[in-house]
Structure formats: C-alpha cells, structure tokens
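Now for today's protein:

——
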Amino acid sequence: MAVEVLSRKNFIAALRRAGIREGDVVHVQSDLRTPGPVEASPAANPREAILEFYLAGFREALGPSGTLTVLTSFEDYGRFGTPFVREESPSRAGAFSEYMRTQPGAVRSVHPIVSLTGLGERAEELCGGNHYDGYGYDSPWGRLHRLNAKFVSLGIGMRIAFSFQHYIEKQFGIPYQYTKLYRTPVYSNGREVPGPFTMSVRYLDFGIAYDFSRFEKRLLEKGAAVEVALGRAMLQLTTAQPALDVGMACLNEDRYFFLKTPPTFRDGEFPLDGFTGPEKYMYDRGKNDAPRAEEKPHG
C-alpha cells in the first residue's frame, strides 16, 4: 500500500482552508512529524527537506508582504543561568523554530527565555527593539495581538502548543503567577543588553499544573478557531483578538480555567502571607503623602 505524501499544493490548500491569505501575519508552533511524509527530492537530506518544505509553503501562501513568526525559546537561561546570546543561543522550541532562527533575514527578539523570530515584511516591527518582559504589552506577543495575527498549531493541538495563552493570562491578571527578575547576562550584537529582564512565571508549589484542553475546546465551539486536515494530522488556526476575547471570558468564568485544578494556596505563606505591619500604612508628610515604606521583600 502506497504511503500518501503531502504535496506543496495540498499544504498550501490546507492553509487557505484554514483562512491564511497573502499579506497575513502568522505565528506557528508545530510538530512536523505527525502529518507524515512530504514532497521532496529523493536526493535531499530528509530533515532539511521537511523543514524547507514547510517554510517554503508558508512563504508561498503569505506572499512577499506576509510575515511568519515562531517561538525561539531558550529555557537554559532560566533553568541553568546560561547567558543568552541573541545571535547564537539555539531555540529549544523544536526543529522548525531553530530552522527559522538561522534563516537569512530572520529577526530574533531579545528576551532571553521567550524570544520570537520573524521572517518577512513586518519581522523587524514584531521582533526588533526592546523586549524586556516575556509577555508584556510591548513584547512580540503584544505586537502580534495589536496586528490581530493568526496563530497556527501545525500537527499539534492548541492544548499543547499555543503560547499566546500566557499573554492572555498576563492581560487578565491571574493569581497563580508572579513577575520574576532575571539578571544573568544577555548579549546582542556583541554587547551586553542592560536589564533586568522579567517574565510572569507560576509558583513552583501549590499544585499548579496547566491543562489547556478546555480552552482549545471552547475556541472551537465558539467558532474562534478552525481545524482542517493536514496529511495524517491536523492544523488548527485562531486569530489574536477572538482568542483573547474567548480566553478573557473563560478566565472571567473561572480564574483557574487554564489549570487542572485550583491552586492549594496556604494561609500564612506567599502569596497569602497576610499583613506586614503598620509601616505599610505610614506616610512621609514631607513628600506629598507618598508611602514611606512598601511591603518588605520575602526570601
């Protein structure tokens, strides 16, 4: 029995069915193993052929005025204190994102943990300049939101690979994350970038575990996402503003909508550490009644 091979024509047709048009801004997260074999020269290096197939397909579908971005995360920075070098630190977000990072003309943002890399007309607009906070207003995630970008999960469901969800969490203000400061060096163009860099991270206690399957289901039910067949797998697509609207509604219904179970916060421990004493409420009358003392740092 012959193995069905995904052709360039059929890949682009799937992108069109999902709603991608020339000139779009598209962010993709992927598992390229699941759709099965793709159309390539028999003499080509198999790995390179697959990566080139998908990048060329996206570029053809988006045309010269379109832009493609990928997550090029480098968790080594946060986990092991490894310095981040914008031009050299590899992406830990899969083969396709690393392939994109190394393409001529690619623009990588400077955040040391959750950088994005773009190719195309608006790559510099999306990934250039400052990127001090992982999911803040002026991060590439915020810029993708304001451009109402399209998010593609290729060969993998949004319940597994849809990092825009963390931007939604930050905009809503969920209670199970805090802003963490990072001071390990970050380098760009041979020079250290002044920090500090920050990112919203979940507490490593209290039973906090993600489960985005309900959100994926809600997006599809509300018509905010579509799913089309792609080879042996599928492709899902949602758009920034509808995704944010549905996500906000989910979190308004249940602030722990993105978690398996509500956190097991404990009284007397951070973030339920109670009052810190009368200094919190004292003011320096000589400085326009500004607070004289904030809550003391912990740890």
User: Anything to note?
Assistant: The longest strand covers residues 233-239.
